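Render Carboxypeptidase-like regulatory domain-containing protein in 3D.
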Amino acid sequence: MIQLLRTFIVIGFLFLGCTLQAAAQQKVYTINGRVIDKATGEGIPFASIALKGKTSGTTSDVDGRYSLKISALSDSLLVLSLGYRTGVYPILAQSTQTIDAQLVAAATKLQEVKVYAKGGDPAYRVMREAIRRRDQYNPARLVAYQYDSYTKIEAYINNFDQKRKNNKRPGPIGRLLGKLPAIIDENGNAAVPVFISETFSNFYARTSPEKTKEAVLKSHVTGVGVTDGGLIAQLTGASFQQYNFYRNSLYILQKDIPSPIGSQWETVYTFRLKDTVSLNNAICYSIEFTPKRPTDLAFTGTMLIDTLHMALAQIDAQVDKRANINFVDELHIQQDWETTASGLRFPTQTQVTIDTDEPAPRAPGALIRFFTFANNIIENKPKELPFYDPAIELADDYKESDTAFWQSVRPSSLSPDELRAMHVVDSVRNVPLVKVAGEIIKLGVIGYKPLGKWNVDLGPILNSYASNNVEGHRFRLGLRTNTGFSKKWLLSGYVAYGTQDEQVKYSANIEYIVSRKPWTVIGVKRSYDLERIGVSTDNIGNNSLFAAYSRFGNIRRPYFQEENLVYFRREMGRGFTQTLAVRNRSFEPLFPFAFQPQAHDDNQTVRSTYQTTELISETRFAPDELILQNDNVRLSTGAIRKPIFTLRYTLGLRNVLDGDFTYHRIALGMKHSFRMGVLGRTYYTLGAGIIPSTVPYPLLFTPLGNESSFYVGNAYNLMNYFEFVCDRWATVQFEHNFNGLLFNRLPLLRRLKWRELVTAKVLAGSVSANNLAMIPTTNAAGQAVEGFSSLTQTPYVEVGYGIDNIFKVLRIDAIHRLTYRDNVSRTGVPVTPFAIKLSGWLAF
């Protein structure tokens, strides 16, 4: 009954409006305000606002705000929303006025009656037509677009003043938070603001080729444990706040959430036509959508579909807390879509609210809000391709702004609580204990400790200590300069000492930034340190934790290496990075080693040491990768949709800087991930290489093994260190995470939010007869020379299955080694055919 009455009122107003538009008067009156729930203070989206006895009306936005321009006044304003009593408010006889409506929830609810047309709920007919026209209104189909973007992010600590059982006092953390400056949230509870940012930028995009660029013009950041620096300014802009429901899925919190108007709409969701409502003088279908299975990672909510164009006009979507997302009690997205000049739809206003799950009963929680506003949209005017590089760029004066500027770019006035929060967060972060906590957070995330006025950072802390059979206790002190020292020069290095070998090791690196656009650097490095065959920087990659771990325990086949390196790196275009380098290295083994010189060498004496000089060319192509600039260091946010390719060529030069060998090495790699609908996400890496030359085996390819109890993503986890050596190789590493597809359907396991996964790793390779012949029986001292194992025609294969997200941070992998289970290891370490390995990281 209430629904029908509301529908008839809105349709009646709109019908009269269409017939009386010609009689509009010249004078314009403006009424604006906000519609809120009187009990909670939260904004009510999609509320209908109309003049009593008149034709004009509108609908509130996702935050409950509205603005109504009319040519004639009435005596009162009607505010209606499903589930609330109708509000009636007097109108003053003035040109501009503000009317804030506080609606009271209806005391009783009528029993729901569902009426279905033949063939099911009529919502499905609407959805099929909206899906058919999806490409017609998808802004991603534009040749290009650009807009002015305003982004605001707020973070609060809340729920710390709740009463505990038996009326006990709050815990120590709650008592501490209770002493900090706070505001009162919409629920009447204390909330401590810990982060607030505002960013204003110009955002550009084009489709062929697909490129985006954000020019951050102004940014202001205040928070605990953060500084108002360039990295934060880039992270809080529009580049990370893109929510397009016309895509098949939205990538949020590292999760692929199917869109209710994406290709899986009928597979994942159930739809119901609720009502027809008026929005900006257009009649819209109000359609409710829910996941077919409540535990699926999908949205629940309501969307408005324009009845004339069958296009998305508004959406209010949230993810049920039963879905498999860590640390999140509620994920809520509210979005307005407006018609552009070309007739497409564009998301002009978006608010995302993340209410975190409390880690323990009565423990404090956190509330994070993201608000974005797009204005001055320009369509189909693409820029030249070089314009889009780099993808994020900071204006030189991005930190220089005042209150007047922010007032001019904000889409609406901030509420008194929001304004007060900006002042309160300054007081919070200056509390001594909070300052210490902020420094600890920065140290844990960055790994370096700034040393104040010296403009240098101490670290990485992770590498400060190790213990092994060669060095004994290893102590290391590392330093690097920051932008306070120079914005062009970056100096870094370390000194290490072992109590057992009593050797001093060191490294010194000087890098000069030639240009920031395009990014161009040159650098030189000199180092002398202990290394081990098969576990070097070249094959460990960026796994700093595994690199630190490899310094512990029993180091087999150790050697000292002196390295001199000169390199040049330049970003050639979006995604293309070219590196050229000259490297000279020595090899001084601490184990029985020797090689037989080649036939053309004058000296045929068996030798144990050698030196190499190499020219290195590395080309990296990552078209979907977004690079951030943190002071003088560049950080990658990874790639989501497109693969990353790497081609590396090494040329060994004989008789150049005392190089002993001429050789070639070519390696090609590809890394990618893709979504498989409701089945989860697949990650895979492909690699291949060849060394068509005769060189000592330390210069061949040694696949990365893993003898630890922890699972390492880029290693063969049941292969020993230095178990195999290849001069021709091909590899596939595969992982598929089902994201709880099975466990979410088992009542006993559903609450645990475990996620099942499978893995597989395959390596095929061989060693030429010439490289095998380089190994003599004994060295110059008469010691037996240790050789190596090589693969036959049978590839190395290991497969596994596991459970992720145990206690939200742990992962267990059960791995089976299918081939070479009886391999006689040259290292003396027995082969493990099956193992269970742990790993852990903080993930959503």
